Amino acid sequence: MKISFPNVRMLQEAKDAQMLKCRHTGKPPLSVGREILYFFIVFLISLVAQSAIITPFQTVAIMRSDEFMALIKTPTLNYQEIMNTVNGLLAALPDWFMAVQLFSTSATIAACFVYCRLIEKRSWVSLGFAKKGAVTEYAAGLGIGLALFASAVLICMATGQVTLSVNAAPAVGMIILYFVGYMIQGMSEEILCRSYLMVSIQRGNPLWVAVLTNALLFTSLHIANPGITPLALVNLTLFGIFASLYTLRRGSIWGIGAIHTIWNFAQGNLFGISVSGMGGSPSVLQATLTEGGSLMHGGAFGMEGGIAVTVVLTLGCVAMLVCQTKKSEIVEISPAV
Predict the structure, then answer these.
(1) Residue 109 exposed, middle or buried by CB count within 10 Å (0-12, 13-18, 19+)
(2) For labelling alongside 243, which of 60, 212, 214, 284 has CA 20 to 30 A away?
(3) To which H or E segment does residue 219 belong?
(4) What is the per-residue pLDDT across 61-89, written as a single tens digit (0 to 9) for each?
């Protein structure tokens, strides 16, 4: 029995009319090594900008704490005592500060726009910002992303590794704020890795090189997260590959931005699970992870560290490659501007 992968060919045929149209415009392509170097420069600049946004809020949160105010009124102070107190306060900042961090990722979006538009001279088309069907694509992405993550949770529940309970009084206002924050954060990572990096690399290299390179660099951005494991690295790479294939199939960034958003939001604020090792947050439900079941549910890192997500993302990648897509289902993009 011969198995064919029609969509690999279709992606190659459709790319000139979609996001990868930019390879014929803008600045000449660079080597993969130079693209990676510039990628990290853009990313580091965005981190500096994020710090400039976060630091004032961080300072206010520390200065308003009773513990810090009591400390500075102490007659005798030493550096180590001050640092221990500050570090403790930083580790226990209120929920609103995490929302600030999510909003601060708008700096990443800005850095990518400046580099791609002003330095690479790329069009909005090449960044995946299709005007036609944007709302539909985003709504579909929310549904697909929720279904994907819920499937991983169901696998864990079916194997007895996760149980769910309802939080009696969820902080609805804060949960909504987190959703808006994840809309920015999820889109920022997709713009950085898919809109910018993947398309820039593909201008002078085979498509598979662009997909694999951006997926691996996406994984590298999470390597310092608390609780990271080898399986988590595998799953993050699988998500990067899935995100790349989905973006190419749809021809825009709206859908995958929505998938990334709802994946993180559902994990942290619907099911009460750690998001890529980044601790807890207000949630509608509370997941209880079975002790000793981290291989399935990911433990402290969250679901991305477990086999349940490996299964879901592997099936997602296969679906992107195998399932036939009608050309009428590909998002049409207006001319470059």
Answers:
(1) buried
(2) 284
(3) helix 207-220
(4) 777 777 777 776 776 666 666 677 666 76
